[in-house]
Amino acid sequence: MQKRLPDYLKRPIINTETTKNVRHILKQHCLNTVCENARCPNKNECYTNNTATFLIMGNICTRNCRYCNISCQKPLPLDMEEPLHIAQAVKDLGLKYAVITSVTRDDLEDGGAEHFANCIYEIRKIIPQTKIEILTPDFKGNANNLNIIINAKPDVFNHNIETVRDLFKTARPQGNYERSLNVLKYIKANSEIPIKSGLMVGLGENQKQIEETLNDLKNAGCDILTIGQYIQPSKEHLEVSKYYTLEEFEQLQNLAHKIGFKNYQINPLVRSSYKAANMV
Question: pTM for the complete prediction?
Fold first, then answer.
């Protein structure tokens, strides 16, 4: 039996001149957002605040993560004008802090690392004062691809672990828990870039597994942590095993603090890029 969505996870539909303007700018520059494609519950709040999280390299993924609403098919070729369009949208939105994520592109030799770098370079040409956070796939753990990212010098590097070790293959069948940790370790060991990662709860993990994951992230050099409640995008996706109570989220905050995280957002509706500027 499907569990009922708690009231504290329900968000109102907001339609203001600001949200209309954000949609207009995104459409004008032919851009995707993770807000729309991943059915983020915070979309309207972020649009109201004149911000959005850009989704680059198309809206079709080469991996089929069982919690994600983005479709898995054969992706389209890269739009080489997209980095410029991203930069123009950042300027038009007046963003002081831009967050860029992507689908996974295992079909590309570099996994799209150069495309990420080009987005950073284009933003810095047009609005050099804007801080840039990137949320990337694992690039198959390839050091050359990660070096492309390091050389582009984003202000924050984010790669999400998403779930605990024992559930990883169920949730992310084409991913690898250790490889994701090693990506974080590589960036930490070879740059001064702050490291961010996050996970969802409600997929069937227990407290011991969460603690192990947070320790793994801390040992990998993670500086910024996010934890939010998993919400099933459709009946075709993994079911919610449990909706954590607000009190249980407070316990997770205490756990993160105990493990040594100083910078974290842990609440039911927290997502990787939610209020990201406030975390830095």
Answer: 0.91
